[in-house]
Amino acid sequence: MTAIDTDTYTLGQHLAAALHKRGTTTTKNADRSANSSWLEIHLPGGTQIQAFDQDAKVDIDPSDSLGLMIVHYLGDPDEEPNNFITIHNAPRDPDTASPDAIQAEIAAAADDTAAYIANWKNSPAARHPDRPIGEHGVMDLPARYLRPGDVTVHTATGAEAVVVTNQRLSHSNQYRRTTRTIAPPTRGGTANLPATHWQYPFARSSGGAHAVTVLAHRHHAPRSLPPVPYPPVPAQFADGDHVVHDSIIWERTGGTWRNTTRTTYAKPTDDEAIRRLFTNNDSLRLGTPTYQPAH
Q1: N or C: which end of the chain has fewer CB within 10 A?
Q2: How is the chain split among helix, strand and coil, in percent rounded to 5?
């Protein structure tokens, strides 16, 4: 990389050039009374992205930057200043940060912005401009309208997840959804559930008419997401093997499985029942099983 010219061009000019290389056009705006300046990117539908330094300026020497922040305002920035999505936020200390690092920081901000714009056009709001958007930038969509990369909102817990599959089940009118948790539940009745609760497929609603709450302007490139973490299924079992699932320890003896939580009168469990712990969606929502082969 060529060293950035901090003596000739401002932070805003460098960022605008980096965005231009990624196919994004910007305009500069300023409020002289507030001694602030920023870059604007206008999106179809009337919303805009703003980029600025943490000190609300872009007309500064890049090496003096306190870190770039880029946000997508979902309404009028003056009338709804708190209604936005943060695209990039990277504070920096100019007294300790390496002057050479600012080029990589600008490139990272431009990459995040370009990726957001590329995925934004696939967002629920862009695909369904006629559907209303509610408070906090969420909207309800029938399950059949979900697409890989949409972000669902678990309103009871505050958690968010990304839909990575949404296909009609064979020989039925139901849709199978697989989600990946972005932010694990922190409150509500499901806060104590394991993270895997949201990570496995489940069927929702006949005909896909069930309303699902999604973030209206958020969308991710499906291929950028890690795969759903289905655990490997053991090829075969042997006496002395153990499987730990949902805080229960299963032990294989004499070709059958028992666990310490069952009474001596309970019937033994066979290999197929244990194997289903690794493949059954309801079992997986209780926790990921761990296989410990006999020594």
Answers
A1: C
A2: 25, 30, 45
Helix/strand/coil for 208: coil
CA distance 3 to 107: 13
The runs of H, that is alpha helices, within the chain are: 11-21, 102-120, 124-127, 271-276, 281-286
SS3 state at 174:
strand
Report the C-alpha gap between 80 and 136 in whole angstroms. Answer: 11
DSSP 148: T
| Residue segments in the chain with a per-residue pLDDT below the cut of 50 | 1-3
> Residue 89, SS3?
strand
pTM of the predicted structure, to 2 decimals:
0.68
pLDDT at 196: 67
SS3 264: coil
Question: Both tokens of residue 105?
Answer: 């920081």
What is the rounded CA–CA span in Å between residue 16 and residue 47?
19
